[in-house]
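User: For my dataset I need records formatted as: sequence, then structure tokens, nothing else. Please produce one.
Assistant:
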Amino acid sequence: MGTWFLLAELGVVPAQEGAVHIMQETGAGVLPVEISFKDGRPQRVTMTQIPAVFRPAKLNKKELASALGVAATDFDSELEPEFVSTGVSNLMVPFKSRAALGRIEMNMSELRRLQAKTLPWRTVSR
């Protein structure tokens, strides 16, 4: 959506009062995008997706912390990691602070391995 906003700001998407409707092919299928303009400038970009599905991640927190390059104590103690999908699954990991986010040094192969063991679904087909 940020890219569509920039393209509209740069004039690649022609400005018009009201809204421009575009169909974008994504990993979750072809999704409608709407860019709203006011006074020739983009104001808002929205993409309609299927309703979000939330599933517990059930990950070992020490292994997850290792894959993310942080300490398990950096995770929020009241919230659990979960997979969220609107067509493509994403892992949401709650942290205690923004400072903890700055310490992330992901080991992508380890994170993929860990997710593959627990991922409750693949891309949802439309």
